[in-house]
Amino acid sequence: MTNPSGHALPANSTAESHDGDFGFTLMELRKLMELRASEGVTQINVHYGGVQNICSRLKTSPVEGLSGNPADLEKRRLKFGQNLIPPKKPKTFLELVWEALQDVTLIILEIAAIISLVLSFYRPPGGNNELCGQVASTPEDENEAEAGWIEGAAILFSVIIVVLVTAFNDWSKEKQFRGLQSRIEQEQKFSIIRNGQLIQLPVAEIVVGDIAQIKYGDLLPADGILIQGNDLKIDESSLTGESDHVKKSLDKDPMLLSGTHVMEGSGRMLVTAVGINSQTGIIFTLLGASEDDEEEKKKKGKKQGVPENRNKAKAQDGVALEIQPLNSQEGIDNEEKEKKISKVPRKEKSVLQGKLTRLAVQIGKAGLIMSAITVVILILYFVIDNFVIQGRTWLPECTPVYIQYFVKFFIIGVTVLVVAVPEGLPLAVTISLAYSVKKMMKDNNLVRHLDACETMGNATAICSDKTGTLTMNRMTVVQAYIGGTHYHQIPSPDVFPPRVLDLVVNGISINSAYTSKILPPEKEGGLPRQVGNKTECALLGFVTDLKHDYQAVRNEVPEEKLYKVYTFNSVRKSMSTVIRKPSGGFRMFSKGASEIILRKCNRILDKKGEALPFKNKDRDDMVRTVIEPMACEGLRTICIAYRDFDDAEPSWDNENEILTELTCIAVVGIEDPVRPEVPDAIAKCKRAGITVRMVTGDNVNTARAIATKCGILTPGDDFLCLEGKEFNRLIRNEKGEVEQEKLDKMWPKLRVLARSSPTDKHTLVKGIIDSTVGEQRQVVAVTGDGTNDGPALKKADVGFAMGIAGTDVAKEASDIILTDDNFTSIVKAVMWGRNVYDSISKFLQFQLTVNVVAVIVAFTGACITQDSPLKAVQMLWVNLIMDTFASLALATEPPTESLLKRRPYGRNKPLISRTMMKNILGHAVYQLAVIFFLVFAGERFFDIDSGRKAPLHSPPSQHYTIVFNTFVLMQLFNEINSRKIHGEKNVFSGIYRNLIFCSVVLGTFISQVLIVEFGGKPFSCTKLTLSQWLWCLFIGIGELLWGQVISAIPTQSLKFLKEAGHGTTKEEITKDAEGLDEIDHAEMELRRGQILWFRGLNRIQTQIKVVKAFHSSLHESIQKPKNQNSIHNFMTHPEFAIEEELPRTPLLDEQEDEDLEKVSKTGTRVLPLDDEVTPHANQNADVVDCNQVHVVGSHSDSPLQNLETSV
């Protein structure tokens, strides 16, 4: 293995000096990577003369890596390609404009406006015939009649404005998400060896010939050949559909493929194919080619009105990586899976969107009916009045005049419809979510799936990891038990005999991942930086405290000399490394959770370094006197042991026999201090009605002590602290199946689950979600960082992955990534989620008041006076422009701490509460009273000419201008009232913190002044005097006073008020969601609407597209190749399908392996773990109750997989 580095550098320099011809063509490498297993081994050894030879042909060194010379790297990129896949082109602005024009409401308006325009230019003979009824015909009105085209043109113009605003919104969203996604890409880094140094390199900069260091939890960024591996197992299901893990070794299968996940072990690989030449890249290229055909199919499908299954649509985008054609069997399995899935409760998405779509469809229906009735009444009234009451006959020359009347009635009808449909609603959702997502980035929440943001607002339970989330993940050894003495501080190295000291130093330095290191502090006087596994870093720190250098030991025994490595995984919960002894024979060092390793020890070193027998009784004494007192102080206990094999070489695969008869060297207590801000954050969660549960792989006493420090447990609480083993015993029946009734009795009281396995975490999350105990279904958030947290993260309503310590697999399965790994960021996510909900409710309260008033005014006005007091263009101004800005103003209200003082709303809470309904109806009553007074008595009050029953094409009247102006000003002041939805009195509180709100209100007011004073004929306005303006303002301000009156009326006393905007009922869901594994409420509502032709009337169509674009671009940014720059991001996560109904036995010792095997077959990743975690009970778990919790000061830094997380 060891290739003297000297050979490599000249190779690099030659690469740089002459033409840089590599000993391979691109196609040769591509063909080589298409081979699997033994074929690959044969090709590498026979045809290319082994991996070493391939390295020298590619001018690289297996030990030193590339030199990093820019010219050489550039040459490699030109010859073998870059490690990125070209992104899909974004939609152009014109395409977005075209999409916005598809809106049915706008199309109807355009048609009406064009007919109106054509007719206004048509001067029929006898058009001014008296017999044709009233047309403005006085001499001074002639030029006004000439200006009849203005209304049609104004409607067209306002439609263009609306389309441009919508398209611009969509475009800026797309841009924002591409920015977000490129940020995600820049953060994707991988460990590469260059010039003998291990560096973190952005994935896109990896080139062919690089040597990559791979470890548990990585997502491979390129294809390569294994150079050196320890116990390496890979999940290749994303490429082959095979769920079993593939063992990789130099002699059996050294081929590593991009997009696959490292599930166990570690190693080094030579990169042989990148970007579009890697296996994943080749598949994407094929998919890209077929994408256009797919789009054609999609369009056809849509025309036939086929309801689209969201998951299928995703796969069609050429982006889902579960590529079935590679494996025909997979397709059949999938069908079976789908059959099974229909029984299983599914993850619900877009609950808020679903409620909104439903509400908008209902309002749309009502608006459609109202507008139809309006048109019919107007036409009947006109016909009866003219041809029955006045007894006129229909003259042919009068036809165009009558048609003009009918077109005017039609436009009034459309106007009622335009006002009824809440155009701004989906926009408000989009803006609110987009704004929140952007701001959440600042609060260390990187949102991958938009609906996670809204779901967090409803969260009722958080299942959190301990290490790194609640604690600082900066581990330090603070106590040790060596040679029969319990040291409460780190002892001086002089107290130990040299033999013991050597065993401690070697046992730690050699038996830990060589990627774990302690580096000098970044700032002078700072704490040393811990890189790699934090528990191992604590042990290495202990070596340093004993005045020894672990690096010197590692230089003596480089990784290549390690004979055999048993890496961490969730079955072993320990790590062992075997080395050859200079004198012959082998020595194995082991470390792991103390109670597990001690169970395998039969000797222990005394003060002099002599090995004494270690019996069961001694072990029980040690647990009671050493391990439990350490655990009660919140310390994690790790045991270090060794074993010599002096006789013949044993069979290394027979692990159970190898890992016995160990000699215990030491037990150390590692402290991981609680983050100082966590207790306060947990107190906030309790106030907000959210239960925090701690799920950890640590010892139950350690877990209880930490939970008490965090405030999850308080003295005197009647809550449960269970170990994984006990938990399984309580919830499973004799056959080993989980019983929901048993779980339901237990989970409401459970606060700490210790020594838990990944399966326990998943069982708990699923049990809480499926539970029917409370009146509301629980909404569960889960944090995870290990590869095997995948199933729980996917099952949870919101999965949080750790940005620093999290493995790629965990990030892929999550909805939100915590960029600082801190629990307080989850609390911020809850605040933002609740804020989204409130923002949308505020906007609804404002929007619906406008809608109710405008529809009633237009309808009754039209029926009584044959003309709507509010003209089409005015309605467009109010409904499209004002509402768009109002949605911007109300959706960007920043969250306040008060949001955390109420209970979660729950998934079934209607969008419009009774208090909001009281506000909507109360303000509508005030506004209608004012407007009807002005319409029917305003001319007498202001002493002006009446605007009622004006003939066709008559000039705008002051009367109706006052009506329009008052209406707009009342909406403007009601916008301020809408800032509060829970009946608060002070509507101005915190208004200065929202600059957008202030500027929108001011801007709308200034625009209104300009429209009234200079709008003229297009807006049907005429100038007003100062006193008229003051009256309008006075009536508008009256809205604020009236708001106070309404808030003084107790909601309870108004029994007749109903809530509105309910979610979908369970029955409807089951009926509509057959065969889907996720329920997307927004999709379902739209599908239900599809059956009704007016579905298109909701501008929601357009806006849901925006939300989708949003949705998908963020989704893609991590999961799909649509707009991707680095191959790293498009790997889908391994499918975490845990068969829900699978019978499982409690993990008892003898059944453990068999069990885990079962689980892994069903698709759970049982993964390499970072340490300890075990379902074996601590025999004396409850002997000691730790009442006194000692807080031991310690320092800490950032995280990387740590012991317990693992499980």
TrEMBL record:
GO CC annotation terms, alphabetical: glutamatergic synapse; plasma membrane
Single GO term (MF): PDZ domain binding
Residues annotated as transmembrane: 368-389, 409-435, 843-864, 916-937, 957-974, 995-1016, 1028-1049
Keywords: ATP-binding, Calcium, Calcium transport, Calmodulin-binding, Cell membrane, Ion transport, Magnesium, Membrane, Metal-binding, Nucleotide-binding, Phosphoprotein, Translocase, Transmembrane, Transmembrane helix, Transport
Family per record: Belongs to the cation transport ATPase (P-type) (TC 3.A.3) family. Type IIB subfamily.
Record InterPro entries: ATP_Ca_trans_C (IPR022141), ATPase_P-typ_cation-transptr_C (IPR006068), ATPase_P-typ_cation-transptr_N (IPR004014), ATPase_P-typ_cyto_dom_N (IPR023299), ATPase_P-typ_P_site (IPR018303), ATPase_P-typ_TM_dom_sf (IPR023298), ATPase_P-typ_transduc_dom_A_sf (IPR008250), ATPase_P-type_domA (IPR059000)
E.C. code: 7.2.2.10
Swiss-Prot/TrEMBL catalytic activity: Ca(2+)(in) + ATP + H2O = Ca(2+)(out) + ADP + phosphate + H(+)
Function: Catalyzes the hydrolysis of ATP coupled with the transport of calcium.
Protein's name in the database: Calcium-transporting ATPase
SUPFAM superfamilies: Calcium ATPase, transduction domain A, Calcium ATPase, transmembrane domain M, HAD-like, Metal cation-transporting ATPase, ATP-binding domain N
Pfam families, sorted: ATP_Ca_trans_C (PF12424), Cation_ATPase (PF13246), Cation_ATPase_C (PF00689), Cation_ATPase_N (PF00690), E1-E2_ATPase (PF00122), Hydrolase_3 (PF08282)
Compartments, as annotated in UniProt: Cell membrane; Membrane
GO BP annotations listed: regulation of cytosolic calcium ion concentration
